[in-house]
Amino acid sequence: MPGAAAALALFTAARLTGVALLALTAEVTGQQPLALLGRSWDSLWYLGIAAHGYGRTLHFAPDIVHSDLAFFPLYPALVRTVTTVTPLGGGAAGLVVSWTAAAVAAWGIYAVGRLLHGRAVATALVVLWGLLPHSIVLSMGYTEPVLTAFAAWALYAVLRGHWRWAGALAALAGLSRPNGFAVAAAVLVTAAWTVWRARGRVSHRLWTGVALAPLGWVSYVLWVGARTGDPLRGYFAVQRLWGSRFDFGRGSLGFVRRLLLHGDRMVFPMVLVIVAAAVVLYALLLADRAPLPLQVYAGVLLLIALGGSGFFESKPRFLLPAFPLLLPLAGALVRTARARPVHATVVVAALAGLSYAYGAYLVVLARTPL
Q1: What integer is the mean pLDDT of 239-267?
Q2: I need a labelling partner for 11 at 20 to 30 A (CA). Which of 82, 120, 122, 136 fits?
Q3: Residues 22-63 pLDDT 10s
Q4: What is the 3-state secondary structure (H, E, C) of 157-192?
Q5: Bridging pattern class, strands 64-67 and 245-246
Q6: d(CA 35, CA 136)
Q7: DSSP assignment, residue 133?
Q8: What residue spans of the chain are helical by DSSP H?
Q9: What are phi and psi of 161, to 5 degrees?
């Protein structure tokens, strides 16, 4: 795809610079950079599933039980595949999967941006995604790069009318993360709108895509339910024992209230700013009349992040796959670059500095779950 190579080169340079600064910070503090990137927090759960399958449970209190059934299977399956066909260990294999997925995701984001607004906006979109405050996660052993890769190409397929590809990719996205259902939602809502406009006269390919789209997410949720003895509610019971549930934002609002009254750590105020910015960006996305699948996909991701309680510090990570939120900023950056190139350079440099410094702080110094 013309222009994609330049965008991918800029994205790679951005992420390598971030990793280099993290490595320097880790060395200064006596820590191992690769261990921090490949074996931090949830990465350890995924590596355990990749090595031993499901079955690990930690009991902290009667109402706090952490089970690995909360983690969707695609990423550990990919890690297991890499460790099987190469001499790499689990941590290194996880980084290979994440870094490869991040590159595929950046390519897909470029494809969506170019289809809608041309090369310049597409390149700016990729660069902005690589310079988000939490973009260090894209270089870690986490599942967000995998979800974003399948999501970007599924949305591209929907925009091009390739329904079977869209459905298959949405199914894989649904196997990668709990909020991967946002991709299926985008496919289903767009298909419904297409059927309504065409008064039911649509290709069988659309119906195939509709059937495939939710299959991955639904299959895993039902499998966990069957394993726990409650087919319909078992997975959600597992999540509740982790402290994660959808309560229409009640838990999040309570946390924000406590933060404003008593908060004194850098991470949580930063999370609050990022989530608030995401809400504003979604309003701008709607005002720009973005295509329906992008509105639905970003909206569902935002709804899950805002409406879910527990792990407030992880909400920016949950929003990393919501790259359509950056489309208004990408357009504005391109217009600024054409009118005032120096101003655009200053903006990008400031974003880069924030991304690199905050990423190193999060992983090396903050000791806060991502």
Answers
A1: 71
A2: 82
A3: 999 999 999 999 999 999 889 999 999 999 999 998 888 777
A4: HHHHCCHHHHHHHHHHHHCCCHHHHHHHHHHHHHHH
A5: unpaired
A6: 14
A7: T
A8: 4-28, 33-38, 42-52, 74-85, 90-117, 119-130, 144-160, 163-174, 181-197, 204-212, 215-228, 234-241, 250-262, 267-287, 292-307, 315-319, 327-339, 341-360
A9: 80, 20
User: Tokens representing 146?
Assistant: 């995998």
**Token pair listed for 83:** 């460790």
Cα 98 to Cα 89: distance, rounded to the nearest angstrom = 14
Environment class of residue 255 by beta-carbon count within 10 Å: exposed (0-12), middle (13-18) or buried (19+)?
buried
What's the maximum distance between 2 C-alpha atoms anywhere in the chain? 65
Residue 22 Cα to chain centre, angstroms = 21
Please count the other Cβ atoms lying within 10 Å of the Cβ belonging to residue 316.
Answer: 26
Amino acid of residue 42:
D
Residue 93 CB partners (closer than 8 Å, separation 6+): 50, 79, 82, 83, 86
Q: For the segment 277-313, what is each residue's pLDDT rounded down to a tens digit?
A: 999 999 999 999 999 999 999 999 999 999 887 778 8
Sign of the C-alpha dihedral, residues 356, 357, 360, 363? negative
CB 358 within 8 A of CB 303: no
Rounded to 5 degrees, φ, ψ at 310 are: 85, 145
- For 130-158, write each residue's pLDDT tens digit: 999 999 999 999 999 999 999 999 999 99
pTM of the model: 0.93
- Closest-CA residue to 19 (of 124, 138, 148, 149): 138
**In terms of C-beta distances under 8 Å and separation of at least 24 residues, what long-range contacts does 43-47 make, across chains too?**
43/91, 43/94, 43/140, 43/141, 43/142, 45/71, 46/71, 46/75, 46/76, 46/79, 46/94, 46/141, 46/143, 47/76, 47/79, 47/90, 47/91, 47/94, 47/141
Confidence band, pLDDT 50/70/90 cuts, at residue 265 = low
SS3 197: helix
Is residue 60 within 8 A of residue 74, CB to CB? The reply is no
